[in-house]
Amino acid sequence: MGATIDRLNTFLRELMERRHRLPSQMAADLGVSHATVSRWLSGKDTPSPQSCRSLATYACMPVEKVLALAGHLPPPNDSFPAEWPEFREYARGKYADELDDDLILMIESLIDRRRRKNASSP
């Protein structure tokens, strides 16, 4: 369970950094209390499935990914080799001036959709 908490914490902190929000501001944006966001960040609580939906919309990413980060779904089974660098790292290195975090997130979402589509195709 510790790895799930770490991944969720990293996701929340990166989301706040990308949107230039404090925990209290993100809480207001999501319609939850500051205490709720504080419990998520400290690992004392995880977002409910409904909160995961709100977080996914807020982060512009697939709800399944946020549900997996919160431990409500198993982690996605990536069909690509583990040694491939994550797109975010690659894009930051290769296109540091051209792509901001919002564009990178949008492209990652498209990549995830393509992976899911390819995985479900016969």
Please characterize this protein's 3D structure.
The chain is mostly helical and 122 residues long. The protein has 2 domains: 2-69, lambda repressor-like DNA-binding domains (434 Repressor (Amino-terminal Domain), Orthogonal Bundle), CATH 1.10.260; 87-120. 66% of the residues lie in helices and 0% in strands. It has helices spanning 2-19, 23-30, 34-42, 49-59, 63-69, 87-94, 101-120. Helix 2 (23-30) packs across helix 3 (34-42), helix 4 (49-59) crosses helix 5 and helix 6 (87-94) crosses helix 7. It is globular and about 40 Å long. It starts with a helix and ends with a helix.
What would the average pLDDT be, to the nearest integer?
83
- Tally the helices: what do you get? 7
CATH homologous superfamily of the largest domain - what is it? Answer: lambda repressor-like DNA-binding domains
Poorly predicted residue ranges: 79-84
Which fold does the CATH topology of the largest domain refer to? Answer: 434 Repressor (Amino-terminal Domain)
The assigned structural class equals mainly alpha
The helix fraction, in percent, is 55-70%
* Basic shape: globular
Integer count of domains: 2
Strand content: under 5%
Radius of gyration: 15 Å
Specify the biggest β-sheet.
Answer: none
For the termini, the CA-CA separation is 33 Å
Instruction: Give the helices and strands as they follow along the chain.
Output: HHHHHHH
Q: Name the CATH architecture of the largest domain.
A: Orthogonal Bundle
CATH class of the largest domain: Mainly Alpha
| Total count of strands | 0
